[in-house]
Amino acid sequence: MTSQLDIDTVNAMVVEQYPGSRNRCVELGLDHAVAACDVTPIDIRPGGFIAGPTQFAVADCALWFLSFVGLGRIEPMALTSELSIRFLRPAIGDRLLCRATLEAVSRRSVIGTAHVWVDGQADRYTATAQGTYAVPLPR
Amino acid sequence: MTSQLDIDTVNAMVVEQYPGSRNRCVELGLDHAVAACDVTPIDIRPGGFIAGPTQFAVADCALWFLSFVGLGRIEPMALTSELSIRFLRPAIGDRLLCRATLEAVSRRSVIGTAHVWVDGQADRYTATAQGTYAVPLPR
Amino acid sequence: MTSQLDIDTVNAMVVEQYPGSRNRCVELGLDHAVAACDVTPIDIRPGGFIAGPTQFAVADCALWFLSFVGLGRIEPMALTSELSIRFLRPAIGDRLLCRATLEAVSRRSVIGTAHVWVDGQADRYTATAQGTYAVPLPR
Amino acid sequence: MTSQLDIDTVNAMVVEQYPGSRNRCVELGLDHAVAACDVTPIDIRPGGFIAGPTQFAVADCALWFLSFVGLGRIEPMALTSELSIRFLRPAIGDRLLCRATLEAVSRRSVIGTAHVWVDGQADRYTATAQGTYAVPLPR
Description:
The structure is a homotetramer. Chain A is α+β, with helices and mostly antiparallel strands.
């Protein structure tokens, strides 16, 4: 019996339990996870840039996947307790990626740092974030 | 000639320049602004709760409107430079509201604090946030 | 027997268990706490302003006292899990105050918003912060 | 004529203009800076741990030095505009180090990510932070 922590199983859970999410898992590592999101016209804010909330959403999702990495299992009820994000430069493109890296895991939380970029421009981050996911406590 | 900082003019700008945004201005004061968003099925995450990114989006938008209050004019190109958000309790309902309150205005930025709640439950905030909007610099 | 959540008992605990702290409790309410700190020459950074870390320290301490309010008891082992701070304007003066206001209490954490000002200028905040204190979990 | 961005010149500025600071520069790179601080009894909070504000101070200082790296010059009047910090595990030891890494530089700000650890335990960060330094604007 395994924890089945693989990309396809994670994405199947997202599709089933969070059908409104446009973010998908594209990579899972020992201490990181990568999420991706296709950009659509509704994501474009004044100036022609990808809006902040779209970038927040992919970062939040990458940290959710990272919490699965930290816990060693898919835990849909891991919840964001807090997240801070800084926008570094205008984001223009068709697809966003975000890599979240593990900072710490405890009984109560998973903490990570995340970087967002436009596909093809991994050397030019458009946002950087840090956040905490709360692990469900036993009752 | 006035700066036309009223709710209808703000919302007309949003509809025209940021058509994908589902957030609207519902109140503008001397030191605050309120944004609202109708919740749809795509906003629901596992557990049946309104997702974090939806709450972030309404907070980010309330702070955008607050930057207009701080500047005394509609400034579509005011951009979020950073925002931190904390989730306080599960959010369940049909409509989100967020009040942003002015903390400081300078030549370069507008800083505010924001509280998010579900319509009808203004005494039970679901999220609290603080953030900075960058004011466009003269070239 | 009561929880003895009063200012003198809080300060006696600080003096005994955290003797290096220069921050003291000056007010405890039903949903807030106020900390104060006398400014000394070591707190002055270039420009003649009170340094950021000194302002952070009084905010962190006010949130610690606020966690006692939230929990209804003095809990020295409540620990900051995260804190974000924004500096609003230069701070010049002899004494700093910080009021922390309760946002949420759960089994695992206390969340609050804090405002820092120089004594005598309560209408001109020098910093605003939000943070989370972790409540010790039962073993 | 050079910008004299070297460790000794940075520390000489700190000693002269910010004599109360106990943090020193120990490394400057092309995209990072490292600050260090000797821990003293006044830094110890209940539980025997190095207090949060001491860790914040070394992170804030590392980001200040990082702003010099980003700007290519020593700029004492670069000021923290905002900083968020997360505490990862208890910090116990005699000396703190913090490495700040550059995320972005613009006309108005320098943004970086910082990791704090106890000397000798660089594989076990005690805190992680991100923040923004404001660059003085021309008048």
